[in-house]
Amino acid sequence: MAHLQPGATIGILGGGQLGRMLAMAAARLGLKTHVYAPESASPAFDVAAAHTVGAFDDADALAEFAECVDVATYEFENVPAGSVAVLAQLCPVRPGPAALEASQDRLAEKEFLAALGVETAAYLSVEDAGALIRAVGKLGRPAILKTRRLGYDGKGQIAIREGSDLAASFRSLGGAPAILESVVPFVKEISIIAARALDGGFAAYDATENVHVNHILSRSRAPAAVDSACAAAAVAATRKIADALEYVGVIGVEMFVVEEGRRKQGIVVNEIAPRVHNSGHWTLDGAVCSQFEQHIRAIAGWPLGSTKRHGAMVTMHNLLGDEVNTFAELLAEPGACVHLYGKTPARPGRKMGHVTRIFAKYED
User: Fold this and answer.
1) pTM
2) N or C: which end of the chain has fewer CB within 10 A?
3) DSSP of 122-178, one letter per residue?
C-alpha cells in the first residue's frame, strides 16, 4: 500500500531521541508506531504504541517486526544496510536501502557526490599505513583521516598535522579502511533539511547555521547568515542528491560555506544524513510543519507540509550532559521551548535534550 490511512502503523528502526520525536509526530497525525531497537531502555519506547527489543541482524525478529507494520523507516544511518535490505523484501522501507549504502561508507559517499558533480573536500582512499603516507604526500597537511564506517559526532577521525606519526594515526583508528580528506577553509557550517515525497515533490527548510563544540553540535540558528545565492545553491545540491537516491523522507545535508572571491560564497558538501537531523530540531517549534511530521508525511505517502519559519530567527541549543540539569531554569524562561529526551545517565557530550527560541528580530 503506497499511501497509509490514519491508524496505520509505522515501524522505526532505532530507539533514540530521533525515533522518540518521530513517534510523537506520528501520534499527532493519528498513526501508530512500533519501535525496534537493541537497547531495552530506548527513549522512543516510552511514546510508541509497541516496541521490540532485538538485534539489527536478527532476521527472525525483523521478519516478525515487518508483519506488524505498514511501512518502516530508520532514525539513524548506522542501521546495517543489509538488515534494511532484508526488511525491504518484507515491507516498504522509506527511505530505501540505497540511501544507507551511499551514506554509511565515507568513500562511497564521496564517490556518489562526485558523480553528481557536487563539490566535496579532496579525498583519497587509505587502505593501510603505506597508503596513508602516499595520500598525505598528495593532499598535504593538515588533513583529516576518517574511518570509512561508523563515525559520527567526531568519532572515528583524527587530524593529520605537521609532525603527526602517520603509522600511529592509522593504528589509532583500528587499522580499518579509511579515507583522507583535505581540510576545507570554511567560514561557517550550514545544513539543509529537506523532504522528498513519494511522488517526487520536494520541500526544504531555511538553511541552518551550525556551531559545533568538540565535534558535537552545540547550537543552530535559522536562517543561516549566508547570501541568497549560497542558500539557493545549497538547496539545489540537496535536491540533486535526494532525486538521485529516489529518496522518500527527510534528509539532512551538512555543508561548509567557503568564500570564493570578494563577497561571494560557495558550498562544499561534507556529509549526507539519510534521516531527520539534529540541526533541524528548531523546526519543532519554529516552523509550520516540523521535520519529524514532515518525515512521517513523506513516508506515509501524504502531502508535504509547509516549511515556513515562525519569527525572524529561530535558535536551537543542545543540552549536552549535565546541561540538562538546568531544565527548571529553562522552563521558567519566557519563550523557551524545552524538549527532554528521557535519557539516563547524563554522560559528558550525551544529547539529553534541547531548547528552541523564536525571535522577532534577526540577531548576530
Assistant:
1) 0.95
2) C
3) -EEEE-SHHHHHHHHHHH-SSEEEEESSS--TTTTEEEE-TT--HHHHHHHTTT--E
